[in-house]
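Office hours follow-up: a student asked to see two folded examples consecutively, so here they are.
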Amino acid sequence: MKKTIIIKYGELSTKKDNINYFLKILKENIDSLLTWTHFINYDRGRMFVDVDETDIDKTINVLKKTFGIHEIIVGYIDNELNFDKICENTINLIAEESFETFKVICKRSNKNYPLNSMEVSAKIGGYILKNRDNIKVDVNNPQLKVHIEIRNDAVLYYLNGFPGLGGYPVGTLGKGLLMLSGGIDSPVAGYLTIKRGVKISAIYFESPPHTSDFAKEKVKKLANVLASYNPNMNLYVINFTKIQEAILKNIPYEYLITIMRRMMYRISLKIAKKGNFKILINGESIGQVASQTLTSMSVINNVVDIPVIRPVACFDKLEIIDIAKKIDTYSISTLPYEDCCTVFVPEHPVINPELEKCILYEKLIPYEDLINEAIKNCEVIKVGKEEKFQDIL
């Protein structure tokens, strides 16, 4: 038997006529992530990654962070379909396993095989019972599940695997631009969007000297975590100082956040169109802060003409925190460095802003010139696994 890593697709299997496109992108994504020697083969049922034995663990660690994978299994493949050989290989598979109860699970895509899947499971189960002492079959809650898949030209053998992230391969559903702050919510929104197959880059608004270099490094670290799921992303850094100071000087205090968000959306839209991003993404959660009431969202959204995706809009804070901890962004997001969304928050911001007032107030500042200047001076940071950041932890 030849040792191999077996990938199960899960949700991708529902794509029917389009599955080959999704599998092609999944293979390309894995190819780009595995910098060591490997060979990938796939069909509509399974993908196989062959690597040296010494590279198996690090390969699995990469696959665990690759979207589009339902389950990752270290198993064996043999081209011999003879039933006696299947029995022998199964005993070899479990030779070093310690268990008291077991179950054999057979799948048979080879419909010409003389035994059906139930018959194979029963016969292999009986063979195991004859060759191992002090064990019994438990079909409901076995300690060990023995999987056998009889294909047209080979048989797969494996035990339990590792869960994958699911979702769709990154890049299969186009590109999006994430409005990334230093908070807890926006990195989670980015992660959830990547899971749906969207290749993301991010935009961050800094406001020196009101925000520190540590705040920027914090966001770069968050972007780097997202890049581990979404390789080779750009981080667009916008100097928002002049715009923010103009707003502070000229706009009624209760409308500061609303006007500021509208300016951010305008800039994000221009960056998105230049980069052919089809959507904007942010971490807004309904009702969490004043700018995230339905009325505020509607008024702020008024300045853009592409979809705005809010993956955590209906999550409560504890649910968002749970995901942030799972993806290792929570400890970074909670570092005490404020971004420009939090440094000038009014004590009583308007929660039901009026669009007509926003339009009137915005005429008090030359925002188009300020926006164009900010975009002209945009800093683009390439984010990836090799990126080195200032230590702020």
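And the second, which I mentioned at the end of office hours:
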Amino acid sequence: MSAFLIRGAAIVSVDPGVGNLSCGDILVKDDLIAAIGPNLDVEDAEVIDGSRMIAMPGLVNAHTHLWQTVIRGIGSNFGGADYYNYLHAGAAPRYRPEDLYYSEMAGGLSQIDAGTTTVFDWCHNNPTPDHTDAAIDGLSASGVRALFGHGTVKPKPKPGEPHFSQVPHPRAEIERLMRDRFGSADGLMTLAMCVLGPDYSTIDVCRQDFALAREMGVISSAHVWGRRNRLNPGGYLDLQREGLLPEGHNVVHANYIPDAEIRALVEAGCTLTATPPAELRGHGVPPLIGRVSAQGGRPSVANDSEVGVTGSMFETLRLSLQADQFHRNVQTQRELDEGTNPEAAAFEAENLKTIGTGGGVYQKETISTGEALKWATINNARVLGLEHRIGSLTPGKKADIVLLRRDDWNMGPALNPENAVVMFAHPGNVDTVLIDGTIRKRHGVLTDVAGANRARAEISVRGPRLMADAGYADLAW
């Protein structure tokens, strides 16, 4: 049995039963957290010095497309329909299975390097079983914990072919994956179905896809916006009336759906994930976080696609918190202008009497850093159906642990470790990463040096080739 003892770290546990410790120890036995507390009396364990560290649960990325890592950064100036035209219609059909392998491997390693130990990998560029298997193999090679989401390709239909919105998720492929690749629900990787959903498919396709996910016992997820051009104007309310909303279904984006639809999803036990880094680039103001909370749900956040934005969950978390507060501030100002918020007006009037207050602004509600950290840890773990296994530092849970150097220039003196994690940390502060009790990064370096070097070299060649094949050399220089 292997054992590690993280000694003397500041512990941000995200578990109210454990709490936060200014100086504590974490005992890891095999793949589990065995004990947490001050001055643990332990023998026969390898000691990891935590005296300069903040120990926290590994971050969870609830929605990302690692198949796009190989063309990372080409779309930071995309607008309108560019994402679909350049990516799904242009670059995606040029992918070979080995391109997917190295893109997924590099993407998984990059997430680990940045302190993310678990991803919901939405892989919707899998036109053949060979592509799917290569993506799974590459993701597995990275060592990251993952919910692999088998998605639906979105090519432009050829003459005589149906539009992708009319094609149900391939039953035979899901059955094959469950039989041959994901036989255990307790492995480091599990399977999900990334379906078209009510925005991108007909109601008949929705019926078939949701029934298949329920039959297979896997989580389903869908991209949803709620704009006026959605194929099913009633969205999930239509599905609710048919009894088709399975518990655990995940909805991503959903910026424009009505509150009644959010409420129906929350009451059905579904989850909703906002991706502010991508959404703020031109897909609408993301008020979803506050709206989900208002309907009794638990917010979830993710980066979405590294085609245009960072994959760092530290940056994603920070931007999500600031975007939510910005939306609240705008709403308060609107109410002040309209005269519909007497509390804000009274606060403003009182504030104007006092010189030197710094221009205080009425805030009915602010989100604490501790609450926000849940979005990227325990709440995201719930999205993946893994809340019972990961998402907090809790004895009995999987040993997915990240150590941050608290005395780095951008962090020190880190007087409040929880604030430091949410508002100051970045991937460069990540010293050590454990996943399932295995050290994947130590002293700031990924432990799979050979694999990391190979993946880095491969994507540096494959990315330019894909761009050239698609005729997009102008996007890469």
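Two things to take away from it. The chain has two domains: 3-58+395-445, 59-320. The longest helix spans residues 313-338.
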